[in-house]
Structures are given as structure tokens and as C-alpha cells.
Amino acid sequence: MKTENMNRLFTIGGMILLAAISRILPHPPNFAPITAMALFGGAYFNDRRLAFIVPLLAMLISDSIIGFHSTQPVVYACFALITLLGFRLQNNKSIGKIALASVAGSTIFFIITNFAVWIMGDFYPHTLSGLVMCFAAGIPFYSSSIFSSPALNTFFGDLTYTSLFFGAFAFAEMKIPSLARK
Questions:
Q1: Distance from CA of residue 97 to its chain's centroid?
Q2: Residue 80: its pLDDT value, please?
Q3: Cys-Cys crosslink for 82: which of 24, 36, 38, 116, Cβ 3.0 to 4.6 Å?
Q4: Helices 152-175 and 34-44, interaxial angle, to 10°?
Q5: Which long-range contacts (CB under 8 A, 24 or more apart) does 22-28 make?
Q6: What is the 3-state secondary structure (H, E, C) of the chain?
Q7: Is residue 78 exposed (0-12), middle (13-18) or buried (19+ Cβ within 10 Å)?
Q8: 112 CB contacts (<8 Å, ≥6 apart)?
């Protein structure tokens, strides 16, 4: 197992914790750092255990303030899947691959969490038509925003935070060589 240098470890962890705390501040619906936290942790932590633990712990801290719901385990499972996407970025962090991973993370989250609402809840009949109704009802959660277009708010939020995370850390690595991966 490769060891993290302490500057790198605290910088990556601190960025993720700050993003998690930002979830409790006022923000447009679904414009949140969740996907970016998971992708960033997966892409930058040398220790894969930390890549899962730090972002999940940060989420747990902010969720303890925001509140929990019945599909929370599914949300955390999605978060872990998105962290796995981040692992694929570890050795090749091109802008295109990072953007694609962000969009893929948004899509994974939407599909899995809406499926969980359908399967675990009593809101929709457990039929194909009920599943379609559930996904259709989930679209406004993607679009109820300042952007008023289906999918744009979640995707734009994820892309914005992902750009901030990856861009800020790349800049920091250039200015502070001790942050670079060893």
C-alpha cells in the first residue's frame, strides 16, 4: 500500500469535508458537491480505503445535520459506485474523462436512487408503468432550478463542483510540489 504524505492527505480530506459542509448552506436544488466528492476521493487518494471512508464520513457528517431518509443506504451505495469511477481517473485525468465521469456519476445516481424509491416505497405501483411514473416524477428533481431544463441543474452542479475540485487541486499541485502523488 502506498502511503499518503500528510500535506496531500489533509488537503484532499479538507476539500472533501468543506464540500460536505457546503451542503448545509443555501443552494439551488440538486446543485450539490456529492458526485464531485466521490470522484475526487477516488481519483486522488492513494489508499483506496481512504477514497471510500473520507467522502462517506464527510457525507455522514453533513447528513446528520440535514437529516436522513429511508433510501439513505442506496444514496451511500451510489456514492461508493461513483468513487469507483474516480479510481479510473487516477492515472489519466484529462478534462474529457473527468467531465464524462461527472455526467456518468449524475446518471448513475439518478437511475439507482429513483429505482430505489420505486422498489422500496408505496408511492408507485410495482409494475413497469409504476417504474416509468417514478422516473418521470424524478425528472423535476433534476430540473427544478435556476436552469429550468431537464437534467441541467444536477449535471451543471456536478460538473461545476467536479471542475472546482480537480482544477483547484491540479493548481495546488503545481504551486506546492509536496502535494503531488508519490
A1: 15
A2: 95
A3: 38
A4: 40
A5: 23/62, 23/66, 24/62, 24/65, 24/66, 28/145, 28/146, 28/153, 28/157
A6: CCCCCHHHHHHHHHHHHHHHHHCCCCCCCCCCCHHHHHHHHHHHCCCHHHHHHHHHHHHHHHHHHHCCCCCHHHHHHHHHHHHHHHHCCCCCCCHHHHHHHHHHHHHHHHHHHHHHHHHHCCCCCCCHHHHHHHHHHHHHHHHCCCCCCCCHHHHHHHHHHHHHHHHHHHHHHHHCHHHCCC
A7: buried
A8: 74, 77, 78, 81
Nine-digit cell string for 178: 509536496
Is residue 142 a contact partner of residue 150, using CB atoms and an 8 Å limit? yes
Alpha carbon 54 to chain centroid distance?
13
Amino acid identity at 162: T
Find out whether 43 and 86 touch, Cβ atoms under 8 Å. Answer: yes
Placement of cell 429505482 in the chain: 115
pLDDT digits (tens, 9 = 90+) for 30-50: 777 888 999 999 999 989 999
